[in-house]
Amino acid sequence: MKKKKASYPFLSNMKYLFAGIWHVQKRATVIILLRAPLLVVISFLGIYLSKEVVAAVSAEKTVEELLWTIAIISGGILFCSVCEKIFYAIMYKLLMAADLHWQMILFEKTVSMDYENLENPDGLTKLSKAMGNCGSEDSVTRIAAEVFSSLFSNVIGIITYSATLSVLSPWITLVVTVSTLSGFFLLKQIGKWSYKNRDQWAVYDRKLTYLKVNSGDFQRAKDIRLYKMTHWFMNVFADTLKKRIVWYKKEQAFGFKVDLGMAALNFLREGFAYGFLVFLIFNQGMSVSDFVLYFGLIGGFATWLLGFVRNIEALNRSHLGVCEIREFLDIPDHQNHRKGIPLPSETFSIEFKNVSFRYPKNNTDTIQNLSFKIEKGEKIAIVGLNGAGKTTLVKLMCGLYTPTSGVILINGAPVSSYNIIDYYSLFSVVFQEIFMLPMSIARNVSASKEENTDKDKVMKAIQLAGLAEKINSLPKGIETNLVKSVYDDAIDLSGGELQKLALARALYKGGKALILDEPTAALDPIAESRIYREYDHMSQGHTSVFISHRLASTRFCDKIFLLENGRIVESGTHQELLDFGGKYSELFEIQSRYYREDVSASEMDG
């Protein structure tokens, strides 16, 4: 397997991380530094207390003197411990705010980045890994800050303890240092192994999350039960979990080998150090109290060194986590997020010039060298069988996708010349899949905050969309919440009602172009035909694009494009295409047979 290198240097990531913490919570950085020496003082006082107790007993001091010694040292330990706990609590609270800062940065990137990056498997994997480094106890912000505080303590402890031990013998300091720091190279391998292989299990984590969310989704619960998908979900979940566990076991097995190496180093280090102390007791007359002191100092020094090693390893993991965050934030946007030319003040023309589009990792183009023009105010229908590329064409038109080649012009100007966020405001779109938020009907229509919602405009849009009777029958009207799985008093609309609500949202937005991507797919042909006639009326004066696989519904359009395999194979009015007698005429005849009142059962079977 090719070795994966970190995309950013360690020092660059630490500077990036702590600059963010300092920007959000300056106090957190100060408290991190203040907490560190307290940990060293607490440790040293504990060792010194043992020495004084042994010295007092050996020298046969009075009980009163011994109690005073214990009280003073214990008081110092208690005072430092309380201060350290207070600092830690404050630091933890501030770091949660800093962690939220990183979550908001990732969220902002997610909702503003090019849409096609979110459909790209590589983009989804990077998003999953980046989000995994925020919003939990394992977030890189919390780990790095706590470790940095601990690292500062360990450095102070190493300096003070080594200075004391060097008076006894520089060799003890050297042996303990070399053996302990050797563990760093072992521990570092764990972080490297995880970073190198994380892509292998990230895809399984994403699938497991999808399965867990959808297995309990209220909207999908009916299909899961009625179509006996339970076993399918269980089998897929079990299979995916099994594959994920394989990598978990590999990670644990690798970590076990490292732990064995660390245990061997600890055995050698402590055997030498304690053997040397025993030698000094029997050959140089070391006092019992000094033995206790140096015994504690050696153990403490090893603990500080080991803590230092683990701090560096933990910071290295945080470094790799910051890499994953920055790799996601670095995903390039190909669309124009800078200042663009002014938007059209009225409805506009749309022109495709030799446009092709290919999905990532696909071998063929979904849209192939497409050229056509929709004039201002013109109504165009794009029809074709499923998989012809109709929805892809709509996403290209709306600016959600960037053409692989060719150019899309709005009033003669390339889409790239407009700011993409401003460009989105030109279109009122109703897609096949309706996305409703767990909030009131009014806010779902306005797609804005409560204070920015024009209730009169909402009702007008609902009326135009043909949903007023349903809404008026509800006790709370447009204030009724949607999504039962979130609100106890919410309702769930039918498929047809959701499509009408989506149309109301599009009408409320008031885009200068209306695009309907098979919004009536859940309706019967008669209801669909009636609604399309209403669309015809509502779209007067607007450039409009209607996508459908039912050819009869769009006969009112000025022009019809028949799309097949990403190409326009026929174009013209409904009657012109029928008279031409080509593919459109053939499909229309096949479809219309099923809607004739006098069709026989045998003909339907044929």
Tally of strands: 10
On the 0 to 100 scale, the average pLDDT is: 82
Question: H/E series, N to C?
Answer: HHHHHHHHHHEEEHEEHEHHHHEHEEEHHH
Can you name the CATH architecture of the largest domain? Up-down Bundle
- Domain count: 3
Helix content: 55-70%
Question: How many alpha or pi helices?
Answer: 20
- Characterize the main sheet: 6 strands, mixed
Q: Determine the structural class based on helices, strands and strand pairing.
A: alpha/beta
* Shape field: elongated
Q: Ends: how far apart?
A: 56 Å
Strand content: 5-15%
What's the Cα radius of gyration? 35 Å
Question: Largest beta sheet: what is the strand line-up?
Answer: 6-7-8-3-9-10
Give a brief outline of the structure.
With 606 residues, the chain is of the alpha/beta class. 63% of the residues lie in helices and 9% in strands.
What does this structure look like?
- With 606 residues, this protein is of the alpha/beta class.
- The protein folds into 3 domains: 10-329, ABC transporter type 1, transmembrane domain (ABC transporter transmembrane region fold); 344-426 and 513-606, P-loop containing nucleotide triphosphate hydrolases (Rossmann fold), CATH 3.40.50; 436-510, Rossmann fold (3-Layer(aba) Sandwich), CATH 3.40.50.300.
- Helices cover 63% and strands 9% of the residues.
- The protein contains 20 helices and 10 strands.
- It has helices spanning 10-24, 26-58, 63-112, 115-119, 121-131, 140-168, 170-215, 218-226, 230-284, 288-329, 390-398, 420-424, 441-446, 455-464, 468-472, 495-509, 525-538, 574-580, 583-593, 601-605, and strands at residues 350-357, 367-374, 379-383, 405-410, 413-414, 427-430, 513-517, 543-548, 559-564, 567-572.
- The protein has a 6-stranded mixed beta sheet with strand order 6-7-8-3-9-10, with helices on both faces.
- Helix 2 runs parallel beside helix 6 (140-168).
